[in-house]
Specification:
mainly alpha; single chain; about 300 residues
Amino acid sequence: MRDPRKGRSRSVRRGRGRLACFAVLGVLGLAALARSAAAQGNSGPGDAARGEYLFRAAGCYACHTRPVSGARPLAGGRAFTTPYGTFYSPNITPDPEHGIGRWALTDFARALRLGEAPDGSHYFPAFPFPSYTGMQNQDLADLWAYLQGVDPAPEPNIAHELDFPFGFRFLAGVWKWLFFEPGAFQPVPEKDAQWNRGAYLVRHLGHCGECHTPRNALGALDGDRQLAGTLKGPDGKKVPNITPHPGDGIGEWSESDLTFFLQLGVMPDGDVAGGSMEDVIREGTGHLTENDRKAIAAYLKSLPEQPGP
């Protein structure tokens, strides 16, 4: 059985070892990965109705809509503060000039599975492709079908404001070679269907670790401390520990507490979710089925306890 925490940990350790000799081999290695993983993106026609549900589960609205009154849904422009500068989410409406209106399904799959734009350039890992790479083929096709039907928003993207030298795109390619492992989610046979569904939702579609897992100095997720929370999340604020640690995490929460929180944003002590999580619940997890919320809760409660942040 593959332990995802150990896998991430091995990835980070391997990345450190590779750092001394990355240049040419990195480009060649990534190209090979791209050919292999792009082939996994092939799928049949998408179901837009099912895609709307996946859109909710994937939290697309919260990241791609500015948190201000009157903002056009999915037109991008939401700022994410990081130690490397400020990233702005892109327009993902079907607008042909500013959005993804000229993309094909293969372009969409390439972006989510490999972190590559249609022109072959690398996306920065602020875009959670390291998590989305695990999405199932039909889910990619269904999500794509839904996005093609939303209202186009002719709003230009905002350029990232990154500190030197992090604005160089080729460095994103190096980062991927060091830390990125493409590949679809593989259920764990020893676990039941609910656990595997929760693992898929948390680790890939919902990409919870992108906000709730601390990162190393180069911005890669710390595989030894999955979901242990961070002091500086995408809003520049502390992001809570969601492992079952009794003092620092959700160890005192029941699975029913978690399910209720994911539906309405209310914690066991009566406090409510704020910041980005408020949007994630209102536009995302609050619309999921009760079974999917229970699956997320069961998976989170099964994880090893982690202290911090």
